[in-house]
Specification:
By secondary structure, the protein is mainly α. The chain folds into two domains: 3-107, no CATH class; 119-206, no CATH class. It has helices spanning 3-12, 16-21, 24-43, 50-57, 59-67, 77-106, 114-119, 132-143, 155-164, 168-171, 176-189, 202-206. Helix 1 packs across helix 6 (77-106) and helix 4 packs across helix 5.
């Protein structure tokens, strides 16, 4: 059994001891108590003689200071206990959240299944029943700029290329979108290419390969 599995089992069993030390409320309590105690230790003089505290704060307050070891507060048993409790709380909280953080760090954000993406609702969807020629003309009229190239919607090929981290040319060389990119690259380069075969493509031709 791995360490992560043991932690998961402990969380599923709702171990009260583990939950207590993994509590955020405990962390806040220790933090603010230590903060207030540190402020008090800064205001109240440290390591002075008892007579100084009696003269400055009175006998009753000086006696309370003695019982709580306020004159040497940073070495007092309760202050050291709070520090120890806070340290254990931070360690347990870190261990409690480590499996989730580790999973997020190691997760490949580019590895997304097509089915999952297809189920997601798009934020904005544009649709039309008009022919493509009419849509292109309307776009050019609205943008006041000619449409240079139209790339087909080949979603499966594109998402496979994204998930694998490879060019579309390598993932689906014979796909419609790959052929469209080859033709656009040739047009931009001002060259003419023949219909590609399985033995070569545009990049092979540009490099002089057969």
């Amino acid at each position: 059994m791995s360490i992560f599995s043991a932690w998961r089992d402990m969380k599923k069993n709702k171990n009260s001891f583990w939950e207590f030390f993994a509590s955020v409320k405990l962390a806040l309590f220790c933090f603010f108590t230590l903060a207030f105690a540190s402020i008090a230790g800064t205001i109240i003089p440290q390591n002075e003689s008892p007579a100084v505290y009696v003269q400055k704060y009175g006998e009753t307050t000086a006696e309370i200071f003695r019982l709580l070891n306020i004159p040497d507060m940073y070495h007092a048993w309760w202050f050291l206990s709070l520090l120890s409790l806070f340290s254990i709380n931070l360690i347990v909280c870190s261990l409690d959240r480590l499996p989730t953080v580790w999973k997020m760090v190691m997760m490949d954000n580019l590895e997304t299944k097509v089915d999952r993406l297809e189920k997601m609702s798009p934020r904005v969807r544009f649709g039309t029943v008009q022919p493509k020629q009419n849509v292109t003309a309307q776009l050019e009229e609205t943008l006041h700029f000619p449409v240079y190239w139209k790339i087909p919607n080949d979603y499966p090929t594109v998402i496979d290329a994204v998930n694998s981290g490879l060019p579309i040319e390598e993932v689906g060389a014979e796909s419609e979108v790959a052929q469209c990119y080859r033709n656009m690259a040739a047009d931009l380069a001002g060259i003419e290419i023949e219909q590609t075969t399985q033995s070569g493509g545009l990049f092979s031709k540009l490099l002089g390969r057969k």
